[in-house]
Amino acid sequence: MSGAAMTAALAVTDLTLAIGGVSVVDAVGFSIAPGEVMALVGESGCGKSLTAQALLRLLPRQVHQIGGRILLGGEDITALPERRMRRLRGSRLSMIFQEPQSALDPLATVGAQVCEASRASRNAVRRMLAEVGIADPDRRIDQYPFELSGGMCQRVMIASALIGGPAVLVADEPTTALDVTIQAQILDLLRRLAAERGTAIVLITHDMGVVADIAERVAVMYAGRIAEIGKTEAVFAAPRHPYTSLLLAAIPRLSDAPKSRLAVIEGSVPAPSDYGAGCRFAGRCPLADARCVAEQPPLRTMEEGHLSACWHAERVA
Amino acid sequence: MTPVLAVEDLAVHFPARHGPPVRAVDGVSFAIAPHETLGLVGESGCGKSTISNAVVGLVAPTSGSVRVAGVEIAGADRRTLREMRAKAQMVFQDPATSLNPRMTVGAAVGEPLLVRGVARGATLRDRVASLLIEVGLRPEHATRYPHQFSGGQRQRIVIARALALRPALLVCDEPVSALDVSVRAQILNLLVELQASHAMACLFVSHDLAVVRHVCDRVAVMYLGHLAELAPREALYTTPRHPYTRALLAAVPEPDPALQRTKLRVPLQGEIPSPAAPPPGCVFHTRCPIAIEKCRREVPEWRPLGETMVACHRTEEA
């Protein structure tokens, strides 16, 4: 889908974010085609959520973008004045969040939240609610968030993010706070919306199961950098970065031998102030040598569309 | 052999300020043999944490019986409860909030030994040191405070404290849910090792079916305060007998795109009803794909089917 002829729905190059001079997201780049679902996966502190927030320029006050460009449908929005950026949010670029109950305004009805971004008619709101799978939209439209379950609130948030007809939807851990049976419903909904409306979805998650279920491509992040990016099948079947490989082996699977030892990644993620000059995974990597500690590995193409930032990518099992 | 834990017809209801009580747990029976790990899975609000709290005496049963190593704790006096708590220890979900931030690690791990008069002075220090080594920490960590440790290390500290009195039963309530994948694997490996080396029984409460399969010998599935199914691990995962178990297994996304994309989907419609107003008949009938009129009227019996216990009118049909 990432053909050169087609304009990407969203293209990010060299995105770099810093807190007080320390870079926490470093030269992150990717692009997404219309209708594509791409996952940004990693453990806490890897910078995936900050990356998501930077796309909509919703970064916390202490985080600054110090480099990189963001192109929305080919248009550079990096330097757009805030006034115009605000008009973009909710119309061409939308976001949904992890905790639906706290992301909705408790004092506004469902109808008011959904049409806030776009001044849609009541009829349009009702249709949108039905489209995201809310049964009985005529009654729900006048209810408040506290009257709805978590899954229902997430549907309302998705409706309010989609009613403006965005080209790109950024979904930050949209199912993490939900139970598995409800999660399955919401993932089905997102998949259908991408296919039917051609919405490009950037899905932020820590759950490799969710990635396997819904994402066509995946970018694995570690300590503020992309470790590996490629088609989901390819990355899972033959990971090219030791971090991805270990991460996949550390997940208990329904197909494992019970009580067998899970692979572990020794140590823990370094703090941003301890990032060295080389590969940030070097301290925990079984393949690391002197070069890894000294020199930062660039992302390089292993196969068509499959890139890895590892000096030893060829040796990753 | 006396089971380490025997729960019979347990009910826990919480009075509500308005309206009927919340029926968190109803008619639940199961037992755990020595050295055995029983998994308890279900979605939020199904009552699994209420059961684990009832088992260690943190909530009082409304009716029914809970026996830990043969001693009844339903309606027991404080002395009996105190005795029992030495035998049943608990590990909670969030290690950040289960440690006192103003107590050193050594003081926290040593406290159970101190208050029970098991050890003090140099003996206590030695015991604490060996407990820390056992969970993969170092003796010199004893003088540090919880905030100086990562989430995974804090969970190790909590586990060391739970092991201090050599309990017969370890109750783990979502012990790895707050941890990242790489750290989660470390803690799961540790729990599996310790359970074997200490020959403990374990009640392992989790919403994660893959984690439960990894560590448990038998698994109980809960829905809205009731047990839906209880079976040996392999039976539960290969031939689930209850439609809810099937739906739950189908809903877990497997970290394998090839497998996940060919998986049969059994989408459950609707939401979990409120435990304050559980549906009549089978509590699952409002979301069940194979429910019939009988399910709406009659509570299904908790009955054996091969090596499985199941509560469903329709299990033979499906």
Q: How is this fold's topology laid out?
A:
The complex is a heterodimer of chains A (317) and B (318).
Chain A: E1 10-19, E2 22-32, E3 37-41, H1 48-55, E4 63-72, E5 75-76, H2 82-88, E6 93-96, H3 100-103, H4 110-116, H5 122-131, H6 137-140, H7 150-162, E7 168-172, H8 180-197, E8 200-205, H9 208-214, E9 217-222, E10 225-231, H10 232-237, H11 242-249, H12 290-294, E11 300-303, E12 306-308
Parallel strand pairs in A: 3-8, 3-9, 6-7, 7-8
Antiparallel strand pairs in A: 1-2, 1-4, 4-5, 9-10, 10-12, 11-12
Chain B: E1 5-14, E2 22-32, E3 37-41, H1 48-55, E4 63-68, E5 71-72, H2 78-87, E6 88-91, H3 105-115, H4 121-134, H5 151-163, E7 169-173, H6 181-198, E8 201-206, H7 209-215, E9 218-223, E10 226-232, H8 233-238, H9 243-251, H10 257-260, H11 293-297, E11 303-305, E12 308-310
Parallel strand pairs in B: 3-8, 3-9, 6-7, 7-8
Antiparallel strand pairs in B: 1-2, 1-4, 4-5, 9-10, 10-12, 11-12
Helix pairs in contact in B: 3-4, 3-5, 4-5, 5-6
